[in-house]
Design brief:
- With about 500 residues, the chain is α/β, with parallel strands linked by helices.
- The chain folds into four domains: about 80 residues, Four Helix Bundle (Hemerythrin (Met), subunit A) (Up-down Bundle); about 180 residues, Rossmann fold; about 140 residues, Signal recognition particle, SRP54 subunit, M-domain (434 Repressor (Amino-terminal Domain)); about 45 residues, no CATH class.
- It contains 22 helices and eight strands.
- An eight-stranded mixed beta sheet has the order 3-2-4-1-5-6-7-8, with helices on both faces.
- The longest helix is centred in the last third of the chain and has 23 residues.
- About 45% of the residues are buried.
- The C terminus is likely disordered.
- The structure holds guanosine-5'-triphosphate (GTP) and magnesium ion.
- The site of guanosine-5'-triphosphate has 21 residues, from α5.
Protein backbone atom coordinates (compact mmCIF):
# COMPACT_ATOMS: atom_id res chain seq x y z
CA UNK A 1 0.00 0.00 0.00
CA UNK A 2 1.47 3.33 -1.08
CA UNK A 3 4.86 1.69 -1.43
CA UNK A 4 6.30 3.97 -4.07
CA UNK A 5 5.34 7.23 -2.40
CA UNK A 6 6.43 5.91 0.93
CA UNK A 7 9.76 4.78 -0.43
CA UNK A 8 10.48 8.10 -2.12
CA UNK A 9 9.64 10.18 0.91
CA UNK A 10 11.71 7.94 3.09
CA UNK A 11 14.74 8.27 0.86
CA UNK A 12 14.38 12.06 0.93
CA UNK A 13 14.35 11.93 4.71
CA UNK A 14 17.14 9.41 4.88
CA UNK A 15 19.38 11.84 3.06
CA UNK A 16 18.36 14.66 5.36
CA UNK A 17 18.96 12.44 8.32
CA UNK A 18 22.62 12.03 7.53
CA UNK A 19 23.24 15.74 7.88
CA UNK A 20 24.10 17.19 11.24
CA UNK A 21 22.66 20.57 10.42
CA UNK A 22 20.18 21.55 7.81
CA UNK A 23 20.64 24.66 5.76
CA UNK A 24 17.74 26.40 4.12
CA UNK A 25 18.91 24.92 0.82
CA UNK A 26 18.73 21.43 2.29
CA UNK A 27 15.11 22.00 3.20
CA UNK A 28 14.37 23.57 -0.18
CA UNK A 29 15.88 20.60 -1.95
CA UNK A 30 14.04 18.11 0.21
CA UNK A 31 10.76 19.88 -0.43
CA UNK A 32 11.38 19.86 -4.14
CA UNK A 33 11.78 16.11 -3.94
CA UNK A 34 8.68 15.78 -1.78
CA UNK A 35 6.83 17.70 -4.45
CA UNK A 36 8.01 15.38 -7.19
CA UNK A 37 7.18 12.34 -5.08
CA UNK A 38 3.63 13.58 -4.52
CA UNK A 39 3.13 14.39 -8.20
CA UNK A 40 4.37 10.96 -9.17
CA UNK A 41 1.91 9.50 -6.69
CA UNK A 42 -0.79 11.16 -8.79
CA UNK A 43 -1.76 13.65 -6.12
CA UNK A 44 -3.64 16.61 -7.55
CA UNK A 45 -1.38 19.51 -8.53
CA UNK A 46 -3.39 21.95 -6.47
CA UNK A 47 -3.06 19.77 -3.40
CA UNK A 48 0.67 19.32 -3.96
CA UNK A 49 1.21 23.07 -4.21
CA UNK A 50 -0.73 23.78 -1.05
CA UNK A 51 0.97 20.94 0.76
CA UNK A 52 4.51 22.01 -0.07
CA UNK A 53 3.75 25.64 0.68
CA UNK A 54 2.29 24.74 4.06
CA UNK A 55 5.24 22.56 4.99
CA UNK A 56 7.68 25.25 3.94
CA UNK A 57 5.82 27.83 5.93
CA UNK A 58 5.96 25.78 9.06
CA UNK A 59 9.53 24.65 8.52
CA UNK A 60 10.78 28.19 8.14
CA UNK A 61 8.83 29.64 11.01
CA UNK A 62 9.72 26.92 13.42
CA UNK A 63 12.70 26.59 15.69
CA UNK A 64 14.08 23.13 15.76
CA UNK A 65 12.65 21.50 18.85
CA UNK A 66 15.70 20.69 20.90
CA UNK A 67 14.93 17.01 21.38
CA UNK A 68 14.64 16.53 17.63
CA UNK A 69 17.23 16.47 14.92
CA UNK A 70 16.56 18.86 12.06
CA UNK A 71 15.53 15.94 9.85
CA UNK A 72 13.08 14.73 12.45
CA UNK A 73 11.64 18.20 12.62
CA UNK A 74 10.98 18.15 8.89
CA UNK A 75 9.48 14.67 9.10
CA UNK A 76 7.25 15.78 11.93
CA UNK A 77 6.03 18.76 9.94
CA UNK A 78 5.37 16.61 6.88
CA UNK A 79 3.58 14.08 9.06
CA UNK A 80 1.36 16.72 10.64
CA UNK A 81 0.63 18.21 7.27
CA UNK A 82 -0.30 14.82 5.85
CA UNK A 83 -2.71 14.33 8.72
CA UNK A 84 -4.18 17.73 8.04
CA UNK A 85 -4.62 16.79 4.40
CA UNK A 86 -6.27 13.50 5.17
CA UNK A 87 -8.51 14.92 7.88
CA UNK A 88 -7.58 15.33 11.49
CA UNK A 89 -10.08 12.99 13.08
CA UNK A 90 -11.34 9.66 11.84
CA UNK A 91 -14.84 10.35 10.50
CA UNK A 92 -17.56 8.10 11.81
CA UNK A 93 -20.58 6.56 10.22
CA UNK A 94 -23.82 8.34 11.06
CA UNK A 95 -26.23 6.24 13.05
CA UNK A 96 -29.83 7.42 12.87
CA UNK A 97 -31.45 8.18 16.21
CA UNK A 98 -34.54 6.44 14.93
CA UNK A 99 -33.63 3.23 13.10
CA UNK A 100 -33.18 2.10 10.48
CA UNK A 101 -30.08 3.96 9.40
CA UNK A 102 -30.05 4.05 5.62
CA UNK A 103 -26.74 3.81 3.77
CA UNK A 104 -26.59 4.08 -0.01
CA UNK A 105 -23.49 2.94 -1.88
CA UNK A 106 -22.84 4.56 -5.25
CA UNK A 107 -19.99 4.51 -7.74
CA UNK A 108 -18.57 3.44 -11.07
CA UNK A 109 -18.91 -0.07 -12.41
CA UNK A 110 -16.60 -2.49 -10.72
CA UNK A 111 -15.44 -0.05 -8.06
CA UNK A 112 -16.32 -2.55 -5.35
CA UNK A 113 -19.83 -1.54 -4.22
CA UNK A 114 -21.28 -5.01 -3.82
CA UNK A 115 -18.23 -6.40 -2.04
CA UNK A 116 -18.12 -3.33 0.18
CA UNK A 117 -21.84 -3.68 0.98
CA UNK A 118 -21.07 -7.13 2.36
CA UNK A 119 -18.01 -5.93 4.27
CA UNK A 120 -19.97 -3.06 5.74
CA UNK A 121 -22.76 -5.39 6.83
CA UNK A 122 -20.22 -7.51 8.68
CA UNK A 123 -18.74 -4.48 10.45
CA UNK A 124 -22.09 -3.00 11.29
CA UNK A 125 -23.25 -6.26 12.78
CA UNK A 126 -20.11 -6.31 14.92
CA UNK A 127 -21.21 -2.92 16.24
CA UNK A 128 -24.38 -4.58 17.46
CA UNK A 129 -26.74 -3.59 14.65
CA UNK A 130 -28.95 -5.78 12.48
CA UNK A 131 -28.19 -5.03 8.83
CA UNK A 132 -30.30 -5.56 5.72
CA UNK A 133 -28.70 -5.63 2.29
CA UNK A 134 -30.68 -4.29 -0.64
CA UNK A 135 -30.00 -5.50 -4.18
CA UNK A 136 -30.85 -2.40 -6.21
CA UNK A 137 -28.99 -3.27 -9.41
CA UNK A 138 -31.50 -4.54 -11.96
CA UNK A 139 -29.19 -3.91 -14.92
CA UNK A 140 -26.35 -6.36 -14.65
CA UNK A 141 -27.81 -9.88 -14.96
CA UNK A 142 -25.82 -11.51 -12.18
CA UNK A 143 -25.83 -8.53 -9.81
CA UNK A 144 -28.73 -9.64 -7.64
CA UNK A 145 -27.49 -13.19 -7.23
CA UNK A 146 -24.02 -11.86 -6.43
CA UNK A 147 -25.39 -9.99 -3.44
CA UNK A 148 -27.66 -12.86 -2.45
CA UNK A 149 -24.74 -15.27 -2.43
CA UNK A 150 -22.76 -12.83 -0.38
CA UNK A 151 -25.64 -12.41 2.04
CA UNK A 152 -25.85 -16.16 2.54
CA UNK A 153 -22.15 -16.34 3.16
CA UNK A 154 -22.27 -13.79 5.96
CA UNK A 155 -25.79 -14.66 7.09
CA UNK A 156 -27.29 -11.24 6.43
CA UNK A 157 -30.75 -10.94 4.83
CA UNK A 158 -30.89 -9.55 1.29
CA UNK A 159 -33.93 -7.62 0.09
CA UNK A 160 -34.99 -7.77 -3.53
CA UNK A 161 -38.25 -7.61 -5.44
CA UNK A 162 -37.99 -8.52 -9.09
CA UNK A 163 -39.51 -5.98 -11.46
CA UNK A 164 -39.38 -3.04 -9.04
CA UNK A 165 -37.39 0.00 -10.08
CA UNK A 166 -34.51 0.93 -7.74
CA UNK A 167 -36.21 3.96 -6.07
CA UNK A 168 -39.36 2.01 -5.23
CA UNK A 169 -37.31 -1.03 -4.30
CA UNK A 170 -35.24 1.02 -1.87
CA UNK A 171 -38.39 2.45 -0.35
CA UNK A 172 -39.91 -1.00 0.07
CA UNK A 173 -36.66 -2.22 1.65
CA UNK A 174 -36.68 0.52 4.27
CA UNK A 175 -40.28 -0.29 5.11
CA UNK A 176 -39.41 -3.95 5.39
CA UNK A 177 -36.52 -3.14 7.71
CA UNK A 178 -38.81 -1.10 9.94
CA UNK A 179 -41.27 -3.93 10.19
CA UNK A 180 -38.67 -6.61 10.69
CA UNK A 181 -36.77 -4.61 13.30
CA UNK A 182 -33.61 -4.37 11.21
CA UNK A 183 -31.55 -1.36 12.17
CA UNK A 184 -29.31 -0.75 9.15
CA UNK A 185 -30.29 -0.72 5.49
CA UNK A 186 -27.39 -0.94 3.03
CA UNK A 187 -28.43 -0.21 -0.53
CA UNK A 188 -26.15 -1.66 -3.20
CA UNK A 189 -26.80 0.32 -6.37
CA UNK A 190 -25.76 -0.42 -9.94
CA UNK A 191 -22.46 0.87 -11.23
CA UNK A 192 -22.79 3.99 -13.35
CA UNK A 193 -20.79 6.76 -14.97
CA UNK A 194 -21.16 10.18 -13.42
CA UNK A 195 -21.94 11.53 -16.92
CA UNK A 196 -24.85 9.16 -17.50
CA UNK A 197 -27.70 11.59 -16.92
CA UNK A 198 -30.44 9.01 -16.84
CA UNK A 199 -28.76 6.81 -14.27
CA UNK A 200 -27.72 9.80 -12.19
CA UNK A 201 -31.37 10.89 -12.10
CA UNK A 202 -32.20 7.45 -10.79
CA UNK A 203 -29.83 8.05 -7.87
CA UNK A 204 -31.47 11.40 -7.23
CA UNK A 205 -34.77 9.65 -7.15
CA UNK A 206 -33.61 7.00 -4.65
CA UNK A 207 -32.15 9.81 -2.59
CA UNK A 208 -35.47 11.65 -2.64
CA UNK A 209 -37.45 8.55 -1.73
CA UNK A 210 -35.42 7.20 1.19
CA UNK A 211 -33.27 10.18 2.29
CA UNK A 212 -30.20 8.09 3.17
CA UNK A 213 -28.31 9.06 6.32
CA UNK A 214 -25.13 8.20 4.49
CA UNK A 215 -24.52 8.33 0.77
CA UNK A 216 -21.11 6.81 0.30
CA UNK A 217 -19.12 6.87 -2.90
CA UNK A 218 -17.27 3.62 -3.38
CA UNK A 219 -14.16 4.51 -5.37
CA UNK A 220 -11.25 2.45 -6.64
CA UNK A 221 -8.03 3.87 -5.17
CA UNK A 222 -6.01 2.57 -8.10
CA UNK A 223 -7.69 5.06 -10.44
CA UNK A 224 -5.84 7.88 -8.70
CA UNK A 225 -7.04 11.34 -9.56
CA UNK A 226 -9.82 9.90 -11.68
CA UNK A 227 -11.46 8.95 -8.37
CA UNK A 228 -11.44 12.62 -7.46
CA UNK A 229 -13.19 13.55 -10.71
CA UNK A 230 -15.74 10.80 -10.16
CA UNK A 231 -16.46 12.13 -6.68
CA UNK A 232 -16.98 15.62 -8.05
CA UNK A 233 -19.33 14.25 -10.71
CA UNK A 234 -21.46 12.25 -8.29
CA UNK A 235 -21.56 15.10 -5.84
CA UNK A 236 -23.33 17.26 -8.38
CA UNK A 237 -26.27 14.89 -8.22
CA UNK A 238 -26.37 13.47 -4.72
CA UNK A 239 -24.91 14.82 -1.51
CA UNK A 240 -21.97 12.52 -0.72
CA UNK A 241 -21.41 12.09 2.99
CA UNK A 242 -18.25 10.09 2.59
CA UNK A 243 -16.01 7.96 0.44
CA UNK A 244 -15.01 4.34 0.78
CA UNK A 245 -11.71 3.90 -0.98
CA UNK A 246 -11.35 0.32 -2.19
CA UNK A 247 -8.39 -1.70 -3.42
CA UNK A 248 -5.98 0.29 -1.30
CA UNK A 249 -4.10 -2.98 -0.99
CA UNK A 250 -3.12 -2.70 -4.65
CA UNK A 251 -2.58 1.05 -4.70
CA UNK A 252 1.13 1.77 -4.67
CA UNK A 253 0.72 5.47 -5.34
CA UNK A 254 -1.84 6.96 -3.00
CA UNK A 255 -2.96 9.89 -5.17
CA UNK A 256 -6.67 9.32 -4.63
CA UNK A 257 -6.40 9.01 -0.88
CA UNK A 258 -4.29 12.15 -0.62
CA UNK A 259 -6.34 14.35 -2.93
CA UNK A 260 -9.93 13.33 -2.31
CA UNK A 261 -10.81 15.15 0.83
CA UNK A 262 -8.85 18.28 0.06
CA UNK A 263 -10.33 18.67 -3.43
CA UNK A 264 -13.91 17.56 -2.79
CA UNK A 265 -14.34 18.23 0.91
CA UNK A 266 -15.80 14.74 1.25
CA UNK A 267 -14.11 12.67 3.97
CA UNK A 268 -12.81 9.15 3.45
CA UNK A 269 -14.66 7.00 5.97
CA UNK A 270 -13.49 3.48 5.22
CA UNK A 271 -10.82 1.82 3.15
CA UNK A 272 -11.01 -1.57 1.46
CA UNK A 273 -7.81 -3.53 1.80
CA UNK A 274 -8.55 -6.84 0.13
CA UNK A 275 -11.12 -9.02 -1.53
CA UNK A 276 -12.14 -10.92 1.57
CA UNK A 277 -15.10 -9.79 3.59
CA UNK A 278 -13.20 -8.66 6.64
CA UNK A 279 -10.89 -6.43 4.63
CA UNK A 280 -12.54 -3.13 5.45
CA UNK A 281 -10.98 -0.68 7.88
CA UNK A 282 -12.10 2.55 9.36
CA UNK A 283 -10.00 5.30 7.94
CA UNK A 284 -7.47 6.77 10.36
CA UNK A 285 -5.62 9.75 8.85
CA UNK A 286 -2.81 9.74 11.40
CA UNK A 287 -2.15 6.07 10.94
CA UNK A 288 -2.04 6.37 7.20
CA UNK A 289 0.37 9.29 7.47
CA UNK A 290 2.60 7.18 9.67
CA UNK A 291 2.41 4.32 7.24
CA UNK A 292 3.37 6.58 4.34
CA UNK A 293 6.34 7.90 6.27
CA UNK A 294 7.51 4.38 6.99
CA UNK A 295 6.64 4.43 10.64
CA UNK A 296 4.49 1.41 10.14
CA UNK A 297 1.06 1.22 11.55
CA UNK A 298 1.50 -0.35 14.91
CA UNK A 299 -1.90 0.80 16.09
CA UNK A 300 -3.85 -0.93 13.33
CA UNK A 301 -1.72 -3.97 13.80
CA UNK A 302 -2.41 -4.15 17.48
CA UNK A 303 -6.08 -3.47 16.99
CA UNK A 304 -6.31 -6.28 14.54
CA UNK A 305 -4.32 -8.50 16.80
CA UNK A 306 -6.71 -7.61 19.55
CA UNK A 307 -9.57 -9.04 17.59
CA UNK A 308 -7.86 -12.37 17.19
CA UNK A 309 -5.30 -12.70 19.88
CA UNK A 310 -5.58 -12.84 23.59
CA UNK A 311 -5.46 -9.46 25.24
CA UNK A 312 -2.58 -10.21 27.51
CA UNK A 313 -0.27 -11.03 24.68
CA UNK A 314 -1.30 -7.91 22.76
CA UNK A 315 -0.65 -5.78 25.83
CA UNK A 316 2.77 -7.35 26.30
CA UNK A 317 3.74 -6.62 22.74
CA UNK A 318 2.46 -3.08 23.03
CA UNK A 319 4.52 -2.49 26.11
CA UNK A 320 7.63 -3.83 24.43
CA UNK A 321 7.20 -1.56 21.46
CA UNK A 322 6.78 1.41 23.75
CA UNK A 323 9.87 0.55 25.74
CA UNK A 324 11.95 -0.19 22.67
CA UNK A 325 12.47 -3.79 23.78
CA UNK A 326 10.92 -5.44 20.77
CA UNK A 327 13.38 -8.16 19.69
CA UNK A 328 13.60 -10.90 17.09
CA UNK A 329 11.86 -13.38 19.36
CA UNK A 330 8.92 -10.98 19.60
CA UNK A 331 9.06 -10.58 15.88
CA UNK A 332 8.84 -14.34 15.48
CA UNK A 333 5.97 -14.56 17.96
CA UNK A 334 4.14 -11.86 16.09
CA UNK A 335 4.64 -13.62 12.80
CA UNK A 336 3.11 -16.81 14.06
CA UNK A 337 0.23 -14.83 15.50
CA UNK A 338 -0.21 -13.09 12.19
CA UNK A 339 -0.25 -16.39 10.43
CA UNK A 340 -3.05 -17.52 12.70
CA UNK A 341 -5.06 -14.43 11.96
CA UNK A 342 -4.37 -14.16 8.23
CA UNK A 343 -7.34 -11.90 7.82
CA UNK A 344 -8.74 -10.37 4.65
CA UNK A 345 -5.60 -8.49 3.76
CA UNK A 346 -3.70 -11.75 4.06
CA UNK A 347 -0.39 -12.18 5.73
CA UNK A 348 1.25 -9.63 3.47
CA UNK A 349 -1.28 -6.98 4.37
CA UNK A 350 -0.72 -7.54 8.04
CA UNK A 351 3.03 -7.64 7.93
CA UNK A 352 3.09 -4.45 5.90
CA UNK A 353 1.78 -2.72 8.97
CA UNK A 354 5.00 -3.39 10.83
CA UNK A 355 7.35 -0.41 10.88
CA UNK A 356 9.93 -0.58 8.14
CA UNK A 357 8.56 -3.77 6.70
CA UNK A 358 6.38 -2.21 4.02
CA UNK A 359 9.48 -0.89 2.37
CA UNK A 360 11.29 -4.19 2.62
CA UNK A 361 8.36 -5.88 0.94
CA UNK A 362 8.46 -3.36 -1.84
CA UNK A 363 12.16 -4.00 -2.36
CA UNK A 364 11.53 -7.70 -2.44
CA UNK A 365 8.85 -7.20 -5.07
CA UNK A 366 11.18 -5.06 -7.14
CA UNK A 367 13.82 -7.72 -6.96
CA UNK A 368 11.29 -9.95 -8.65
CA UNK A 369 10.59 -11.99 -5.58
CA UNK A 370 6.97 -12.58 -4.96
CA UNK A 371 6.06 -11.72 -1.44
CA UNK A 372 4.28 -14.76 -0.25
CA UNK A 373 3.91 -17.35 2.40
CA UNK A 374 7.23 -18.90 1.40
CA UNK A 375 9.12 -15.78 2.19
CA UNK A 376 7.61 -15.51 5.62
CA UNK A 377 8.51 -19.12 6.20
CA UNK A 378 12.12 -18.30 5.32
CA UNK A 379 12.19 -15.45 7.79
CA UNK A 380 10.70 -17.70 10.41
CA UNK A 381 13.22 -20.40 9.63
CA UNK A 382 16.08 -17.92 9.99
CA UNK A 383 14.90 -16.72 13.38
CA UNK A 384 14.20 -20.25 14.50
CA UNK A 385 17.77 -21.21 13.68
CA UNK A 386 19.03 -18.57 16.08
CA UNK A 387 19.65 -19.21 19.74
CA UNK A 388 17.44 -17.41 22.21
CA UNK A 389 20.38 -15.17 23.05
CA UNK A 390 20.79 -14.25 19.40
CA UNK A 391 17.12 -13.48 19.06
CA UNK A 392 17.22 -11.21 22.07
CA UNK A 393 20.48 -9.54 21.10
CA UNK A 394 20.92 -9.78 17.33
CA UNK A 395 23.99 -7.54 17.54
CA UNK A 396 26.06 -10.52 18.73
CA UNK A 397 25.52 -12.30 15.41
CA UNK A 398 28.88 -12.21 13.65
CA UNK A 399 30.19 -13.98 10.58
CA UNK A 400 30.38 -17.52 11.92
CA UNK A 401 27.00 -17.31 13.62
CA UNK A 402 25.55 -16.06 10.37
CA UNK A 403 26.94 -19.04 8.50
CA UNK A 404 25.54 -21.40 11.11
CA UNK A 405 22.09 -19.78 10.99
CA UNK A 406 22.11 -19.78 7.20
CA UNK A 407 22.91 -23.45 6.96
CA UNK A 408 20.44 -24.26 9.73
CA UNK A 409 17.63 -22.50 7.92
CA UNK A 410 18.54 -23.35 4.36
CA UNK A 411 19.16 -19.71 3.52
CA UNK A 412 22.23 -17.62 2.74
CA UNK A 413 24.35 -15.31 4.85
CA UNK A 414 23.22 -12.48 2.61
CA UNK A 415 19.61 -13.16 3.53
CA UNK A 416 20.52 -13.18 7.20
CA UNK A 417 22.24 -9.84 6.68
CA UNK A 418 19.15 -8.47 5.03
CA UNK A 419 16.90 -9.63 7.83
CA UNK A 420 19.20 -8.16 10.46
CA UNK A 421 19.48 -4.87 8.60
CA UNK A 422 15.73 -4.59 8.30
CA UNK A 423 15.30 -5.42 11.91
CA UNK A 424 17.89 -2.86 12.99
CA UNK A 425 16.11 -0.27 10.95
CA UNK A 426 12.87 -1.11 12.62
CA UNK A 427 14.42 -1.03 16.07
CA UNK A 428 16.09 2.28 15.32
CA UNK A 429 12.77 3.69 14.33
CA UNK A 430 11.12 2.46 17.47
CA UNK A 431 13.90 3.92 19.58
CA UNK A 432 13.68 7.20 17.80
CA UNK A 433 9.99 7.26 18.44
CA UNK A 434 10.40 6.46 22.07
CA UNK A 435 12.81 9.32 22.46
CA UNK A 436 9.83 11.29 21.48
CA UNK A 437 8.74 13.84 19.02
CA UNK A 438 6.71 16.35 20.98
CA UNK A 439 3.49 17.29 19.34
CA UNK A 440 3.51 14.44 16.92
CA UNK A 441 -0.10 13.59 16.66
CA UNK A 442 -0.97 9.97 17.06
CA UNK A 443 2.59 9.06 17.76
CA UNK A 444 2.51 11.83 20.33
CA UNK A 445 4.85 11.51 23.14
CA UNK A 446 4.14 11.35 26.80
CA UNK A 447 6.95 12.95 28.72
CA UNK A 448 9.67 10.72 27.36
CA UNK A 449 8.15 7.47 28.51
CA UNK A 450 7.74 6.31 24.96
CA UNK A 451 6.90 8.10 21.81
CA UNK A 452 4.31 5.61 20.88
CA UNK A 453 2.70 6.02 24.24
CA UNK A 454 0.59 8.93 23.12
CA UNK A 455 -1.10 6.87 20.51
CA UNK A 456 -1.19 3.65 22.39
CA UNK A 457 -3.56 4.55 25.19
CA UNK A 458 -6.15 5.33 22.57
CA UNK A 459 -6.56 1.62 22.15
CA UNK A 460 -9.67 1.06 24.13
CA UNK A 461 -9.88 -2.04 26.17
CA UNK A 462 -6.32 -3.18 25.75
CA UNK A 463 -6.15 -2.90 29.47
CA UNK A 464 -2.45 -2.54 30.09
CA UNK A 465 -2.26 -0.44 33.22
CA UNK A 466 1.39 0.39 32.59
CA UNK A 467 0.48 2.18 29.44
CA UNK A 468 -3.10 3.15 29.93
CA UNK A 469 -2.33 4.95 33.17
CA UNK A 470 -2.15 8.66 32.46
CA UNK A 471 1.28 8.91 34.03
CA UNK A 472 3.10 11.67 32.24
CA UNK A 473 0.16 13.88 31.46
CA UNK A 474 1.40 16.52 33.83
CA UNK A 475 4.45 17.23 31.68
CA UNK A 476 4.06 20.49 29.87
CA UNK A 477 5.50 19.30 26.60
CA UNK A 478 2.97 16.56 26.34
CA UNK A 479 0.11 18.94 25.77
CA UNK A 480 -0.73 17.96 22.22
CA UNK A 481 -0.95 14.32 23.02
CA UNK A 482 -3.08 14.96 26.06
CA UNK A 483 -5.82 15.81 23.71
CA UNK A 484 -5.35 12.48 22.10
CA UNK A 485 -5.31 10.88 25.47
CA UNK A 486 -8.44 12.61 26.53
CA UNK A 487 -10.17 11.51 23.38
CA UNK A 488 -9.02 8.01 24.02
CA UNK A 489 -10.52 8.00 27.45
CA UNK A 490 -13.77 9.38 26.21
CA UNK A 491 -13.81 6.63 23.62
CA UNK A 492 -13.19 4.10 26.31
CA UNK A 493 -16.14 5.33 28.29
CA UNK A 494 -18.42 5.16 25.32
CA UNK A 495 -17.76 1.52 24.75
N1 LIG B 1 -7.98 -6.16 -3.94
C1 LIG B 1 -9.20 -5.69 -3.69
N2 LIG B 1 -10.20 -6.04 -4.50
C2 LIG B 1 -11.43 -5.55 -4.24
C3 LIG B 1 -11.67 -4.68 -3.13
N3 LIG B 1 -12.98 -4.36 -3.15
C4 LIG B 1 -13.52 -5.00 -4.21
N4 LIG B 1 -12.60 -5.72 -4.88
C5 LIG B 1 -12.78 -6.53 -6.09
O1 LIG B 1 -13.25 -5.72 -7.14
C6 LIG B 1 -14.07 -6.47 -8.02
C7 LIG B 1 -15.39 -5.77 -8.26
O2 LIG B 1 -16.11 -5.76 -7.05
P1 LIG B 1 -17.70 -5.59 -6.96
O3 LIG B 1 -18.03 -5.49 -5.53
O4 LIG B 1 -18.42 -6.60 -7.75
O5 LIG B 1 -17.86 -4.18 -7.67
P2 LIG B 1 -19.20 -3.38 -7.96
O6 LIG B 1 -18.89 -1.94 -7.77
O7 LIG B 1 -20.32 -3.92 -7.18
O8 LIG B 1 -19.39 -3.68 -9.49
P3 LIG B 1 -20.72 -3.40 -10.38
O9 LIG B 1 -21.88 -3.84 -9.57
O10 LIG B 1 -20.52 -4.18 -11.61
O11 LIG B 1 -20.72 -1.93 -10.64
C8 LIG B 1 -14.23 -7.83 -7.38
O12 LIG B 1 -13.35 -8.72 -8.00
C9 LIG B 1 -13.82 -7.60 -5.94
O13 LIG B 1 -13.30 -8.75 -5.33
C10 LIG B 1 -10.55 -4.32 -2.30
O14 LIG B 1 -10.64 -3.56 -1.32
N5 LIG B 1 -9.35 -4.86 -2.62
MG1 LIG C 1 -22.23 -4.55 -7.79
Amino acid sequence: MFESLSEKLQSVFDRLGRKGRLSEEDVELALREVRVALLEADVSLKVVRQFVAAVKDKAVGQDVVHSLTPAQTVIKIVHDQLVELLGTSPPRLTVASKPPTVVMLVGLQGSGKTTTAGKLAVQIRKMGHRPLLVAADPYRPAAVTQLQTLGKQIDVPVFHEAGKKPPELAQAAVKHAEQAGLSFVIIDTAGRLQINEELMRELESIEAKVAPHETLLVADAMTGQEAVRVAEGFRQHVPLSGVILTKLDSDARGGAALSLREVTGVPIKYVGTGEKLDALEQFHPDRLAQRILGMGDVLSLIERAQEHVDQEQAARMQSKVVKGEFDLQDFLDQMSQLRKMAGGGGLTGLVELLPGVGRALKEARQAGQSVDEKQFKRIEAMIQSMTIEERRRPEIIGGSRKRRIASGSGTTAAEINQLLAQFRQMQGLMKQLSKGMPGMRGLGQLGGVGGLGGGMPSLPGLGNPAIAAPQPVSTGSAAPSNRQHHKARKKKKRR
